[in-house]
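Posting here for the record, re: adenosine-5'-triphosphate.
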Amino acid sequence: TRVLGIEGTAWAASAAVSDSESDDVFIETDAYQPESGGIHPREAAEHMHEAIPRVVERALEYARETFAGPDSAPPIHAVAFSRGPGLGPCLRIVGTAARALAQTLEVPLVGVNHMVAHLEIGRHTADFDDPVCLNASGANAHLLAYRNGRYRVLGETMDTGVGNAIDKFTRHVGWSHPGGPKVEAAAEDGEYVDLPYVVKGMDFSFSGIMSAAKQAYDNGTPVEDVCYSLQENVFGMLTEVSERALSLTGSDELVLGGGVGQNARLREMLAEMCNQRGAEFHAPEPRFLRDNAGMIAVLGAKMYEAGDTLVLEESRVDPNFRPDQVPVTWRPTAES
Ligand code: ATP
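Prediction output follows.
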């Protein structure tokens, strides 16, 4: 199966072509870079409007060159798009593009949940059966595991997503977006200072630690020390809850998803925790961790094969689309 995937929930205007037979995934992404501050929804939508046609054209060109002739119709079986969660103005542009393409190419339309796609690309690239997934992305932070036909949210942030929390601190310090890689670099020279650590059962909160981090910085604590301590506490919280999720489900497989998953310290903590309990840990390669259309195309192909397609009238986007709203049609029903 060959699927064109389109992603555009926030900053990444991205198109991809996945080919199930060769396991080849081509991804073309055009990133929105805010001139100042964080992501402005209107500017991000303008970026989608301008960049989506370009990345789609490049992906279709790749599909023609690789799987057919340059003058042939695009050899695509379905068009998959990210339906949500994400910024409404961005999602609407991607939804409109996907509907138009599916109609023009005369192929079915598949609506993919962005967070389930973060999980499934980890499961797919690791060849895991039934992992717990830690989604550590910009706008989200949660643990998912499969049970009775759905991915259940076992634990989640009580306030902001993990990447957004880090980005808020770096904006305060005056660093450009995205902040995560800058915190990671600065943390290398830091020492631990006391900051809040908030885990309540399976849930966790970042607002207290972020206010304390800003305050510590304003009071003259070296920024390297604040960055180091932020990483230790925030990632320590995520690791603790991941371990609890493994223990609760009895799973011995953990996959990581989301852009913050590119952080080496987070991966190190999770790998060490898994190692200690004899579980396997998998973090997909960076191009599949940050927002990308490859994960949309790969899950889109599985959904298409399961007959899980959309009629145009019911293909509205959903900015608050939760992963546990999605009936998992692409896994054998005997699993629970
Ligand atoms: P979502 O998938 O929830 O819609 P998103 O669209 O914001 O989130 P992602 O691509 O998953 O996007 O993640 C982007 C986030 O990842 C940003 O907040 C960025 O600061 C963070 N990030 C990127 N690299 C690193 C890193 N090395 N360490 C920590 N955070 C990072």
